[in-house]
Design a protein that fits this description.
Blueprint (H helix, E strand, L loop, with lengths): L12 H17 L4 E4 L5 E6 L2 E5 L5 E5 L9 E5 L2 H16 L3 H6 L5 H11 L3
Antiparallel strand pairs: 1-2, 2-3, 3-4, 4-5
């Protein structure tokens, strides 16, 4: 793992917001999350298998809500602030953690990459 020694003032706004989300998930919800800058220039917060929050250029958070008993398909959702995203993502995290991983894989719940490509085609982030 590479350590980033940049000060918060030196970070791009999207990366700063991503780090705020990761810190809130860790401190307020005891959920580990990693921030990644992709070669495309996009920034993502990886929370759990199939649960990845992306940031658009306006620093808005986007992620796929997993399939649930109430909804038979994944759903793109968003939040404008790290606090709102952390609360909602924490709920989705708990929902995913309650299911065996093999169930998530076999059930096709972990289609984040496919859905991200579809979302980019429909409304670039």
């Amino acid at each position: 793992m590479t350590v980033d020694h940049r000060t918060p003032e030196a970070l791009p706004p999207v990366e700063l917001r991503a780090r705020e989300l990761a810190a809130l998930l860790a401190q307020s919800h005891n959920i580990p999350a990693d921030v990644h800058s992709l070669p495309s220039g996009k920034v993502v917060v990886s929370v759990y298998y199939g649960l990845v929050a992306r940031l658009d250029d306006a620093c808005r958070f986007w992620w796929v809500v997993p399939v649930s008993a109430e909804r038979d398909r994944p759903l793109w959702t968003s939040a404008a602030t790290p606090g709102a995203a952390a609360v909602r993502i924490a709920g989705h995290y708990e929902e995913l953690r309650a299911r065996p991983l093999v169930h998530l894989i076999r059930g096709g719940y972990l289609l984040t990459d496919v859905l991200m490509e579809h979302h980019e085609a429909a409304a670039p982030v």
